[in-house]
Amino acid sequence: MSRQPENIDRNRIADLVVLLVLASIVVLYCIDAMRASTDVLNLILVLPVTAIVLVLCLLQFFLDVQKLRQVGQPGEPPSAVLPVAGLFAAYVLSLPWLGFDLGTFLFLGAFLWVHGERRWSWLLGYSISFAFVLSMFFSMMLPYPMPMRILHMASG
Amino acid sequence: MIDAAALAAAIEMLFSSASPWLIVIPGILLGLVFGAIPGLQISTAMAIFLPMTLYMDFMQAMLFLTAIFTGGGFGGSIPAILMNIPGTSSAIATAFDGYPMSRQGQHNIALGLALGASCIGVIVGYTILFLLISPISAIVLRIGPAEMTVVILWGITLIGSLSSGSLLKGIISGLFGLLIGTIGYSEAGVTRGTFGSSYLLDGVAVIPAMIGMFAAAELFRLVKTQYLIEDSAARRVSVRLILAGFRQAIAHPWIVLRGSLIGVFVGSVPGVGSSVANLLSYMVTKRSAADPDSFGKGNPSGVVASEAANSTSEAGSMATLLALGIPGGGATAVMLAAFAMHNITGGPQFIREETDVVYAIIIANFGQAVLLIGLGLLLIPLLANVIKVPMTYLVPSVLAIAVFGAFGLTGDLSGPVTVLVFAILGWIFKRYDYSVPAAVIGILLGGMAEDSVIYSYQISGGQWSYLLQRPMALVILALLAASLFGTRLVDALTRRIRD
Fold first, then answer.
1. A-chain residues within 8 Å CB-CB of B187?
2. Is residue B178 within 8 Å of residue B417, measured between CB atoms?
3. Which has more pLDDT, A129 or A153?
4. Residue-range domain boundaries for chain A
5. Collapsing DSSP states into helix, strand and coil, what is residue B113?
6. Chain A CB within 8 Å of residue B397 CB
7. Least CB-CB distance to B392: which of A37, A93, A112?
8. Using a CB-CB distance cutoff of 8 angstroms, which residues of chain A are in contact with residue B403?
9. Model pTM score
């Protein structure tokens, strides 16, 4: 039996928000597709699938609304993954400027530092060697150039 | 029918000297390594080493390339099991149960199961190819867009069964993924959902999206744990346990055989191949299991079903290549290039006139499966040591490998950005009980589904009655209905008989 709190459970509201965001993305995509062309070939799959998704979202919405006052399973809070996700986003988005070699070294170093590694020999040694080996391996294996900062300068 | 003279000539060709086998071992090792590194596809390995085959005769070239193919087929399962990163799209379903097994400290068993199912799968697949190469090629020629549409419909209706949480959310996830899979240029010559980005013109990069949703999202969650396997005693790598897993795979002959049959036939359909075969085999095994709820939580049968199908689909794609001269995917396209480099054209004439070569390729693959056992047992203990690395080091290292691999797949920064975007999406999906596997399958099948529906529409002129003229499509529809309602129908009938 689920407890009936006076206030609406936050997790349930978050469930509804995610559902609405997914439905909105689907609708926006369908509108974009219709704006691009109303040709049958363009909409033959997108339109019926969008319609089905919206019907299913509506059903799920009613199910979720019914449970609004029940206490949901407390999930992992976004704050738990925010530091890692933020660091990863910074790494990926800075690659065009930092290059894969320097970017990877800084990402590894920063990650280890944030997660408690204070031994400088390990911090620098691992970050430098891993970034170097990975960058060298992939730049040799791939048939197209990779953005590099230090290895690029080293190779002239 | 088997041509005894050609068979004798094939055996003579393979075993008169050791030279054809000398290049098989490095081929398998290359395949294992490339398959085990996310982002480095088997086809990439084959393309990189294709120029080397210029210095080999045709037989050696084929042995070398199929050895990479065989090694890579299994290699992709190693990161799928240990890190939830399918090294290739053909190992998606392996991660469903392989990774939970690893988290429970059963990584040795899971790796052994994957190796066993892969090796047996290769042998079963090539045996089917040996016996049925002509009928298979005849069936492949009959598969049109209508059949493909129904196969995809089958896959999508089964998506719901993959969802461990809400069925509705499972289907929403699958269809959401399906729509993402259609982003980019459409058949009408217009672009959709690109937000003006030229990177999305060809659509969302499927494998980086898969790496993001499966692996990066999981790594975000794992950062608070100390090791991949919390129990230090369970962290050891044991060849004895890997062998025990290998034996367990043999103890699932029906799952291996069913997976192999799915692998051969789905693998032989150009453009579909192992990426769909492993999912289909997994879903059918889950549906027919007595304990379907245990799938996705570390059920060994899930690993066996997936690996048996993806390794066997190699034989299926070889059937299409040899019998029709049509490459089923990237790896067989490279092989077709090797055919051209040696002035050989695949097709019915090739099978008729060079039967001994075809038989030699098939027999060589039996040998490769045996060699894969030895090489796999040597390499797995080395690669499995990844579980002993503290998460503080493992998480950023794997994320970095994923970023490099994604760049390797797309050739530009859209790959790494795709990993990032889908990692966040994957975390949201997991957090709010949407099905990540269903979404990934949707993304994988989206483009293919749209093409098949369009071609069916064009051929039929929009008439539904066209479907009635396609017996194979009707058979697949019947299978779809049986897979959806069969078990319930049997249960209902059994209850009625008992009452």
1. 41-42
2. no
3. A129
4. 10-66, 81-154
5. helix
6. yes
7. A112
8. 91-92, 95, 100, 104
9. 0.74
